[in-house]
Write the structure tokens for this entry.
Amino acid sequence: KQEVTQIPAALSVPEGENLVLNCSFTDSAIYNLQWFRQDPGKGLTSLLLIQSSQREQTSGRLNASLDKSSGRSTLYIAASQPGDSATYLCAVRPSSGGATNKLIFGTGTLLAVQP
Amino acid sequence: GAVVSQHPSWVICKSGTSVKIECRSLDFQATTMFWYRQFPKQSLMLMATSNEGSKATYEQGVEKDKFLINHASLTLSTLTVTSAHPEDSSFYICSARELGQRNSPLHFGNGTRLTVT
């Protein structure tokens, strides 16, 4: 059974700092991994999608890496800003076990960037 | 970009009543939509997969007679919480994948906050 874990559960940093969020998954049989941002009481905004054949994806100040064999992904945020404060979720899409259409989410990292 | 619209964004209802939540893909077609539930400080849990023109597929532990799903067109899926109880209070989020784009990202609605009194 695929399980997704995110560490740390919460993180507080001063503005301008670079930071790394971690995501690990137990089964390497995945189609892709997706990072989302969720603001309080809101839906999800997709940040980056990494296909299983890719190693990393970049968008602006965000860079996500994927090491499928070790079951790990990181989301790197450069020069953090108070507007980056949100909960960050990673999710994997399994490629086996009959559950190939669903996303399995981690529990998220609550990020607070202090001005 | 692909937009998923969810309505209403919040609803308060009395115990025993039914509530319908709509999920629309505004600028793309989706044969499959997904309904998730999120309890406070927890992650999203998939409730069911909504298939256009056929019955929804429910996850283990989700009562199909309580959470009725209808996917009548390629742009609309509805979730009806029947005979709602306070324990059904939660944040419900739908998502959709563009037709024919198997490996494309899922697009999410803004969610519906349901409070049952």
Remarks:
- The radius of gyration of chain B is 13 Å.
- The mean pLDDT of chain B is 91.
